[in-house]
Automatic annotation (TrEMBL):
This is 2-dehydropantoate 2-reductase. SUPFAM superfamilies: 6-phosphogluconate dehydrogenase C-terminal domain-like, NAD(P)-binding Rossmann-fold domains. NCBIfam families: apbA_panE, PRK06249.1. It catalyses: (R)-pantoate + NADP(+) = 2-dehydropantoate + NADPH + H(+).
Length: 309
């Protein structure tokens, strides 16, 4: 049986890491680059990983600066920030076969619904990346910790194709869980992302510094409880014990600069729509109050306007 072919849209800290894993297990992977394109064509892609460093040499790397040049593939992995989702329809459409599976490796909630409507897809998959990974230079990724993926499908069927993708990742050395509902999986990730991405950006600090302050850990927990209440109002049951587990794991992990904090420090737009605004809108529709989350969103909105000027 032939292996799935892949296209990676957004070959940075997330897409570059997972795409390189698939490449090293024998899959034909095509990487879309933006500013790093010329560099990787000459130097290849390098991953420093706590599981062991690895790389793809320039002559082995399928690098592109336009999705129009990439052949049609079996699976499209989208690892762009949600702030660029307005580009996805144009980027993805040239890559689609009749049965191509699109997998959104993105934060937040609501992106699957938006993109499946634009592309007319019966189903679309989402992936939650439980990973600490940063891009530290052109074509250079630093994988600090973790790496587990949680995958799920939105829409009709699609689960057999997603199970195939999950097996591809497992063969590539990536731990994978497959959820029946991508919405349940997204709420689980939001449980961590909403407090820690936002608070780290407002405070301009890493996760270790935050967890070393009992009052800040308590605030993070209070925000997590609000997110859990919103999730429950939509039918996604999150175990209460999951909050303490996440807090314990965050306290143990290596100091980590969240993706939102890095966006702030680099004067890039932060992912507020899918990670905060959509969550607050859903909660409001369900009659759930999220005062601490809303206050955090308001502060982030102010910072965002300053940073993207």
């Amino acid at each position: 049986m032939e292996k799935n072919t892949y296209a990676v849209i957004g070959s940075g800290a997330i897409g570059g890491y997972y795409g390189a894993r698939l490449h090293h297990s024998g899959h034909n992977v095509h990487f879309l680059f933006n500013t790093d394109y010329q560099f990787v064509c000459e130097n290849g892609l390098k991953v420093d990983s706590h599981y062991g460093d690895f790389s793809i040499s320039a002559d082995q790397l399928n690098a592109y600066d336009s999705s129009q040049s990439i052949p049609k593939v079996d699976v499209v992995l989208v690892a762009l920030k949600t702030t660029q989702n307005g580009l996805l329809e144009t980027l993805i459409r040239p890559l689609l076969k009749p049965k191509t599976l699109v997998v959104l490796l993105q934060n937040g909630i609501g992106a699957e619904q938006d993109l499946s409507a634009k592309l007319g897809l019966k189903h679309i998959a989402g992936g939650l990346c439980f990973i600490c990974s940063n891009k530290i230079g052109p074509g250079h990724i630093n994988h600090i910790d973790y790496g587990r993926l949680t995958l799920g499908v939105y829409g009709e069927s699609g689960l057999p194709a997603l199970n195939d993708v999950a097996n591809d990742f497992r063969e590539s050395g990536v731990e994978v869980d497959v959820e029946n509902s991508i919405m349940d999986a997204r709420w689980k990730k939001l449980l961590w992302n909403v407090p820690f991405n936002g608070l780290s950006s407002v405070l301009d600090t890493d996760t270790a510094q935050m967890m070393s302050c009992p009052e800040m850990a308590q605030l993070a927990k209070a925000i997590m409880l609000e997110v859990r209440q919103a999730a429950q109002a939509t039918g996604s049951e999150l175990e209460l014990s999951l909050i303490d587990t996440m807090l314990t794991n965050t306290a143990k992990m290596k100091p980590y600069l969240t993706s939102m904090l890095l966006d702030k420090r680099n004067n890039r737009e932060m992912e507020l729509q899918y990670m905060y605004k959509n969550v607050l809108d859903i909660a409001a529709e369900k009659g759930v109050a999220m005062p601490k989350t809303e206050a955090l969103y308001q502060q982030l909105s102010f910072i965002n306007r300053l940073d993207v000027r």
